[in-house]
Write a structure and sequence with these properties.
The chain is α/β, with parallel strands linked by helices. Helix content is 43%, strand content 26%. It has helices at 3-10, 28-49, 65-73, 85-94, 130-142, 171-180, 197-211, 216-225, 227-241; strands at residues 15-17, 20-22, 55-59, 77-82, 100-103, 115-121, 144-155, 161-162, 167-168, 183-193, 248-260. The longest helix has 22 residues, at 28-49.
């Protein structure tokens, strides 16, 4: 299965949590925590680096949630693209009419515009070939204004690891690729996970193996969609708030901000 087929298939695996549609295979309470972190940093760096009216691209926009959020919180010219036509259609439903959206069947940015700010969230780790990733970063560079910024949030590791649909590269791998494309790193942060991460990484995996069927992804999707598992996750998160002074620092998710040379 090609990656475009994989994401097209994922775009059809819809479930509801707290009245909102989701497609993620990340445990849903953990995804909420991660999304809150990303949103706060995205607004911080857009506000720090950009001016209202600037042109912003969501590279790998998925269902358009981040674009719709930015449309509510700023006066930007927003664009989004994704390799899955199914996700682009969902983004069209989620976003205001003035957000420009397009699919990219060849994996290349489908707009002639150059952007002041490009962000990419959990996309680059799903480009399996290093050469394809190098071409992707070069394509992003070609579509970024001189002095413009690129914001990336990716799963990283202390050493390279690979699965059927993902690659865990090191932080240094990403820095080197962007430097080769004419960027310089200006910021990086690691996501600090709360204590309930232990429940997500241990108890949920055991529950999935015992009570759910299919591949690891299929089991996680089924657990995310299960009202019983959603309520159990909410209970664990609620208990964790009582112990929020025990964060677990993991380097498995890294946020990068790069600036293109002037």
């Amino acid at each position: 299965m090609s990656m475009s087929d994989y994401w097209e298939n994922r775009s059809e695996k819809e479930y509801v949590y707290r009245g909102e549609k989701f497609y993620t295979i990340t445990p849903i309470s953990l995804y909420h925590h991660r999304r809150s972190f990303i949103v706060s940093r995205l607004l911080k760096y857009i506000g720090k680096q950009q001016e209202k009216g600037d042109i912003i691209l969501d590279y790998g926009c998925g269902d358009g949630w981040y674009l719709a959020y930015l449309a509510r919180h700023g006066k930007y010219r927003l664009y989004g693209c994704d390799i899955s036509p199914g996700f682009v259609q969902r983004a069209l439903l989620a976003c205001p009419a003035d957000v420009r959206l397009a699919d990219m069947p060849e994996g290349r940015i489908p707009f002639a515009d150059r952007f002041d700010f490009v962000y990419s969230i959990a996309v680059l780790a799903h480009i399996l070939s290093d050469e394809d990733l190098r071409r992707t970063v070069a394509d992003i560079a070609d579509h970024t204004m001189e002095g413009g910024h690129v914001f990336c949030f990716e799963s990283t590791s202390s050493h390279r690891r690979q699965g059927p649909t993902w690659v865990r590269r090191t932080s240094q791998d990403y820095v080197r690729l962007f430097e080769e494309a004419g960027f310089r790193p200006v910021a990086s942060e690691h996501l600090v996970y709360p204590l309930f991460t232990l429940y997500q990484l241990t108890a949920m995996r055991l529950i999935g193996r015992v009570f759910f069927r299919g591949s690891a992804e299929e089991r996680q999707l089924a657990m995310n969609a299960s009202s019983v598992m959603q309520k159990l996750g909410d209970v664990v998160v609620g208990l964790d708030r009582l112990m929020s002074f025990f964060p677990i620092r993991l380097t498995g998710n890294t946020l990068f901000v790069f600036q293109k040379a002037r």
